[in-house]
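Cross-check.
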Amino acid sequence: MTTPPPARRPITLPEDLCAIAEQRFLSRFNNLETLLEFVLRELTRNDAEALDRAEQAILEKRLRDLGYI
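Predicted model, tokenized:
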């Protein structure tokens, strides 16, 4: 028996932010939803503490520059 896919919920984001993210990352991700799912999973991983402070700061700056945080 297969497990059903997890429930999903809609979110709204500014159009200009979405366009910039798609422009920069569409070559690495199928779509914006896939990119955002990856980012959220990375930010909420249990081993996120394993990132050293410099890596964490770089990731947070990139996300802040993109308007995600």
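The chain has a mean pLDDT of 85. The radius of gyration is 14 Å. Passed to J.P. for a second look.
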